[in-house]
Hints:
- By secondary structure, this protein is an alpha/beta fold.
- Helix content is 43%, strand content 9%.
- The N and C termini lie far apart (80 Å).
Amino acid sequence: MAHGRPRKTAEAAAADNGATVGYEAQLWKMADALRGSMDAAEYKHVVLGLIFLKYVSDAFEELHRKLEAERAEGADPEDPDEYRAQNVFWVPREARWSQLKAKARQPEIGRLVDEAMAAIERDNPALAGVLPKDYARPALDKVRLGQLVDLISNIEVGNEAARAKDVLGRVYEYFLAQFASAEGKKGGEFYTPRCIVKLLVEMLEPYHGRVYDPCCGSSGMFVQSIEFVRAHATGNGNGGRTPRGAKKPDISIYGQESNYTTWRLAKMNLAIRGIDGQIAHGDTFHDDRFPDLKADFVLANGSMSSQQSGEGEIRKAIVEADLVDCMVALPGQLFYSTQIPACLWFLARDKRNRRFRDRRGQVLFIDARKMGRMVDRTHRELTDAEIAEIAGTYHLWRGETDVPPEAVGGRTAYEDVPGFCKSATLDEIRAHGHVLTPGRYVGAAATEEDDEPFEEKMARLVAELRAQQEEAARLDAQIAANLKELGYGG
């Protein structure tokens, strides 16, 4: 429940953006240098598969050493059940990273990696059909593959210290983002930028119940929020705090992905966090694998923005059914698949539920198009402070009372802010032809009143201009004098 749940302060959120652990960018640069002419869409499975293999081997080797030290007490380091009891994947001898590292520069390294992947799948049913097993193909340069094995050998991703910092999760996420960027439009098929996923999760707060993504890509909706992952992986959400009067978080994850290679990424992406989600392979429209599922939350990256193919009528029906709770207009350049601005839809089947105030007949519009910072020449991201402001505004509008005032401009209750947010009625939306573009409703941002009389302002500005001209003339004369001293007076 949202009421009474301790929230992070704005300062804590800013310090916890989880962007990098310090060397992801350097690691990516080295790995990308080994790509050569290989297409990014193909290379990502080569790299991410090896990183996953290193992770399971690190975790295995650490527990193996511990069990070896406990032989006298009856521990057996070669018993697979010892590892399964600790939620650690069993790694057969031929699949252990030490074996691959020792033979990284041999011509058969591709075959050895394939055999390692097959052995791990054989002994861990949860990974059946998930891991890539085409490293022996002739098109893959075995010298570069061996160099990549050497590179990944230098990072610890699966031991206890690395798991505590979620090193692999963050490296994996960073690489997914970089591959999405390298693939351009195609990259958007499997990766939704982290800041958007974080915004969705922060607004919806899906800490309890069944969460479903009908087109889950690489499972980003499930794994890119640290709070979400903690809630599911430890059963002790919100950083170990349970809301007053609430039971421990109980989350079940369901997803479906039509692209087979992307489905494999999704399964690996969940596995490295220890999340047991039900991710099915298939086209949701033509082969719904969860036909009887009644989800509490549905998060999906889709489209409902044009008047084509009857979408206008569908949108009108959704509005008239009073299902639209909130609309958030995003800035452009957030996605890898398109540069145009997108819009987040938040739908609620019951706007009078007991968790929040009765919101029937109302829709919140938030215009965040001016937010975000550029992270490179073509891509933008929302900051943690901006995410907190958007989510906090929505929570205030819903009637929640535990929103940190510093996150929402000092406000302790919802109010319309010109240029940013507006609570509109269904009649107002009807008057706009059921268009749900936030800019239509929020209006223009308030501007500071200029109460300086025109004559006084002009006199002041002219005086400033003349002072600047005098200073420019003085500097020109100084430059000319310096040039003359150097023999360039002319």
